[in-house]
Amino acid sequence: MKRKTNKNLTSFTGHLDEQYGKRGTEVREHFESEFEAFRLGVMLQEMRKEKGLTQAQLAEKCGTTKNYISRIENDASDIRLSTLMRIIHDGLGANLKLSVDL
Predict the structure, then answer these.
(1) How far from 65 is each of 22, 31, 41, 87, 90, CA to CA, in Å?
(2) 36-88: per-residue pLDDT in tens?
(3) Is 79 among the domain residues?
(4) CB 73 within 8 A of CB 44
(5) Which is more confident, 5 or 11?
(6) pLDDT band at 2 (very low <50, low <70, confident <90, very high)
(7) How many Cβ atoms are within 10 Å of 80's Cβ, its own excluded?
(8) Is 99 a member of any domain?
(9) What are the distances in angstroms from CA 40 to CA 7, 9, 14, 44, 77?
(10) Would residue 58 count as lying in a domain?
(11) pLDDT per residue over 6-26, tens digit each?
(12) What CATH number is associated with residue 38?
């Protein structure tokens, strides 16, 4: 049996280029920065759940509020690096590693 190929398929990057413009454009860079904030919130939520902590328990361990943890996890709040480090280290008992792509 011969397989049919669909020539109308678009890669995910192609879709992003079409929807938000190429990397480097203002709209696309705004999208990318919003996505990184969303991804950070999801990552923190997953780590918190893996540790079996509620938002209130995590907040208490790192000296912040449940509301603030919720806002971070739901992409509604910017987070300072010092606060992120405290949540990761004091709250989750992990280490934070950063990298920069130029």
Answers:
(1) 38, 28, 15, 11, 14
(2) 888 899 999 999 999 999 999 999 999 999 999 999 999 777 888 999 999 99
(3) yes
(4) yes
(5) 11
(6) low
(7) 8
(8) no
(9) 35, 30, 24, 6, 11
(10) yes
(11) 677 888 888 899 898 999 999
(12) 1.10.260.40
Distance CA 88, CA 91 (A): 6
Distance CA 16, CA 59 (A): 35
Q: How many CA atoms lie within 13 A of 102 on its CB side?
A: 0
Q: How far apart are CA 90 and CA 75, in angstroms?
A: 21
Instruction: Examine residue 5 and state whether it is found in any structural domain, yes or no.
Output: no
| Domain assignment of residue 31, given as a range | 15-91
Q: Structural domain tally of the chain?
A: 1
The CA radius of gyration of the chain, in Å to the nearest whole number, is 19
Reading the block at residue 12, the tokens are 């995910």
